[in-house]
């Protein structure tokens, strides 16, 4: 049983390829040579890769435990649940701005930190991994906030429309599917954040 990486790769390729090709003119010359900024980027690229690995491990647990492995088979249930992807359009749009991208990554990590509570309830036997993931999400969010402040970059707080409390799952199955989509969305979010950090590190 495998995580639906093929679908994920296809989606990401479609969504991100064209916009990322346009980013090489991004207005970041004043930061790109900043030694501390480069150190921050490389350190948090590794951190983001580690978090992605932990999310993938939990996706395999959900697949093995509940036989929920393929996203396309669950899309109708997802519509009923109302679990939306946390936005990261500032990190792969043609109007890429480092401040806005960092702000969205920071806010998204906080949102997923909260959402993972539903996964924790679902997988009590894997509590230590879920709790580590929550701690790592909180730490990465704090790292980004600190770096933004250190560089004197403007912080932006995005409205959290549609990202209120988690839905009250009407059944155990809905809870399981909800956990599946929280992890699938988090993995997509991390992939975009990783690409953003990697892009900045290459400027």
UniProtKB/TrEMBL annotation:
Protein family per UniProt: Belongs to the IL-6 superfamily.
Gene behind this protein: Mgf
Major localisation: secreted
Pfam family, one: GCSF
Lineage, top ranks: Eukaryota, Metazoa, Chordata, Craniata, Vertebrata
Signal peptide extent: 1-25
Classification via Gene3D superfamilies: 1.20.1250.10
Keywords: Disulfide bond, Glycoprotein, Growth factor, Secreted, Signal
Transmembrane segments: none
GO biological process: immune response; positive regulation of myeloid cell differentiation
Molecular function in Gene Ontology: cytokine activity; granulocyte colony-stimulating factor receptor binding; growth factor activity
Entry's localization field: Secreted
This protein's name: MGF factor
Source species of the chain: Oceanites oceanicus
């Amino acid at each position: 049983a495998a995580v639906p990486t093929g679908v994920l790769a296809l989606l990401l390729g479609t969504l991100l390829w064209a916009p990322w090709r346009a980013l090489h003119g991004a207005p970041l010359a004043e930061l790109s040579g900043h030694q501390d900024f480069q150190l921050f980027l490389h350190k948090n690229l590794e951190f983001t890769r580690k978090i992605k690995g932990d999310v993938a491990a939990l996706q395999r647990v959900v697949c093995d435990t509940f036989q929920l492995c393929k996203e396309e088979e669950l899309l109708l249930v997802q519509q009923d649940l109302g679990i939306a992807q946390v936005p990261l359009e500032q990190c792969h749009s043609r109007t890429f701005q480092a401040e806005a991208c960092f702000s969205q990554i920071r806010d998204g990590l906080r949102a997923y930190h909260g959402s993972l509570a539903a996964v924790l309830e679902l997988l009590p036997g894997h509590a230590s991994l879920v709790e580590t993931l929550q701690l790592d999400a909180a730490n990465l969010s704090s790292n980004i906030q600190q770096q933004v402040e250190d560089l004197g970059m403007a912080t932006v707080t995005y409205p959290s429309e549609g990202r209120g409390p988690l839905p009250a799952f009407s059944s155990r199955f809905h809870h399981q599917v909800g956990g599946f989509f929280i992890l699938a969305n988090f993995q997509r979010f991390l992939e975009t954040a990783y690409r953003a950090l990697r892009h900045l590190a290459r400027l």
